[in-house]
Amino acid sequence: MNNRNNRAVNIDGVDIEFHLHAPFFSNPKSKVITERGVVADWLKLRFHGCIHEFKREDVRDPPDVALRDSANKRYGIEVTELVDQECRKNAAKYGKAESIWFSKEEITKRLNEVIAKKSEKKFNGEPFDMKVLLIHSDEASIAYGEGPDHISQFPKIPHSKFGEIWVVLPPALSTSPETGSMDCRIIKISLDS
Questions:
Q1: What CA–CA distance (Å, rounded) separates 8 from 169?
Q2: 3-state DSSP call for residue 178?
Q3: Tens digits of residue pLDDT in 77-129
Q4: 127 prior amide bond cis, ω within 30
Q5: d(CA 166, CA 134)
Q6: How far is Cα 137 from Cα 122, in angstroms, rounded to an integer?
């Protein structure tokens, strides 16, 4: 159930106020920077412990980012955001908007919609050795509480054009610079191969 009335929720003993929508992807000037930041966070966590050097390639969107690693493997990476579109419109119109609370059913529905929409895109610069979809979200109901567990149990995606699909979330609430990693979290969605 989407809930616009409650101003805060308690997740894992921490009160979280609904944040004002951060319009990262709605500002064309910051869109490329944000997409590259999400990719950098994913690369750091995805290839943790492995020696990989990546060089960005100039390829017309889509994909959002094209990389070649030191083994000459090419990655086409599409980045998107899982966000309530009404919040996005209000943020663009008024400069701010309240987040909503996504139920598990709504998270599943929205993930399926995003994956289906991005799967329709034809990548420029083919061929790629690996096509990757990164779905970023900083919505409280997706990033915290039961959201990450629900995403990790997401049903397998059949017949995807992507070799990997990941959800990229902000750091866990229990982390801080003094106590642990401030890295984003990534959750891989299983694919039928």
A1: 19
A2: coil
A3: 999 988 877 777 777 777 766 677 888 999 999 999 999 999 998 999 999 99
A4: yes
A5: 5
A6: 23
Joined tokens for residue 99: 């987040």
> Helix, strand, coil % (nearest 5) of the chain?
30, 25, 45
Rounded distance between C-alpha atoms, residue 65 and residue 57, angstroms: 8
Cis, peptide link before residue 28, omega less than 30° from 0: no
Q: How many CB atoms lie within 10 A of CB 136?
A: 26
Name the token pair of 132: 């990757």
- The predicted-structure confidence for 21-68, as pLDDT tens digits, reads as follows 344 444 455 677 778 778 888 888 888 756 567 788 888 889 998 988
Q: Where are the domains of the chain?
A: 8-189
Unique residue bearing structure tokens 């094209």: 66
